[in-house]
Amino acid sequence: MASTQEKGWLQLHDPVNKYLPYWTQDASDPRSQARLLSIHVKTQAHCTRNFSACVERLYHSLPLHAAPGTVWDYNEFHNQVVAAVLEKVTGTNIHTLLSEDLQSWNMTHSRYPDHFGPGGPDVSADLVTTAVDYEQFMMQYFGGRLLKNETVTMMEQDHMPARCSLESCPLVIPQGHYGIGNWWLCPGDLDPLIHRTKLEPMPQRCVEAQVHSDQGLFGFWPVWDRRLGYWMLLATQGLPLLSDFKAEILQTVLKPFLDKAVQEQRGATLPDLPMPDWEHISAKADTKVLPTLVA
C-alpha cells in the first residue's frame, strides 16, 4: 500500500469512499470517516472469488466494532478493504499486484498463492517466502531503496492508541506496541512473552532504543535498530505453523553483543558482557509454549 502511495495512485489519509462507490458518504454513519489507515470492523474475514465483490459483500454484512481511528487492530478486515481499493485504482487484481512487487524486490523464491475458496485470499498472511528472500526485502527497506524516508518515518511511529480490539490484545503481550507493519521492541526484557509495555505508554528507554521488528510468530525474527543503524534476521528452518520462540530468544541473547560490536567499531569503549548461560537458554527454548490466548 505504501509503495502505491509513492507512485501517486492514492494517499494513505484519503477516505475509503473516495475510491469505493458503495462505501457510505453519510456523515451520520461512522464508516464514512474511515480512511485507508483507520478502518475497523469486528470480525476477521477472508474473501473468496471475486475478491473485490467479496469485500463489498463483507462491508454490508460485518458489524462496525468501533469508530474509525479509535481502536488498534492487527490483520483484520481493513487489510482486505485496502486491497480492494488497490484493485479499483490500478485495474489489476491483487494477486498480480503483489506478485509484481515480489519480482521488483528480487524476492524470486517468494509467492502470493493465487487461491480462492474458503479461507483465501488473505492479503496479510498468504505470503510464502524464504529467509534469503526476506533478506532482500530487509536490504531494500533498511537501505532506503524501497520507500521514501517520510513514509518510513510514518510507518515506524507508535500507532497504538489507548485500547486494542479483543482479537488483537493477546498479541500485545509478546510483542509490545505496533507501528504499521512493524512492532516496537523493548530491549532488556528477559522474556519475550512478558513485555513491560502492554497497553501502557512506551517506556522512555524503549522509545530511545528505536528497535523495530516483525511479530516473529511464524519463525522469522527480523530486527532493525534505528539508533545504532543496523539490522539482523533470524529464521527457523522449515515452515512451522507457529514459531516456538527459539528465534526470539536467540535475538534477545545476541543483540546486546551485536550492539556492543557496532558501537566499538565506531570507537566506543564498553565493558565486557557476561557470557550467556546456554544450558539455561536451551532449557527455556525447549519448554516455551505459545499462550492459548494467541491461538
Describe this entry's structure for a reader.
- The chain is of the alpha+beta class and 295 residues long.
- The protein has two domains: 1-129, Beta-lactamase, CATH 3.40.710.10; 156-290, no CATH class.
- It contains ten helices and five strands; from the N terminus they run αααααααββαβββαα.
- It has a five-stranded antiparallel β-sheet, with helices on both faces.
- A hairpin with a 6-residue loop joins β3 (211-213) and β4 (220-225).
- The two termini are 28 Å apart.
- 23% of the residues are buried.
- The model is unreliable at 40-44, 190-197 and 288-295 (pLDDT under 50).
Main sheet: strands, sense, barrel: 5 strands, antiparallel
Q: Please give the number of β-strands.
A: 5
The radius of gyration over CA amounts to 20 Å
Distance between the termini: 28 Å
- The largest sheet has its strands arranged as 1-2-3-4-5
The share of residues in extended strands comes to 5-15%
Secondary-structure element string: HHHHHHHEEHEEEHH
Content-based structural category: alpha+beta
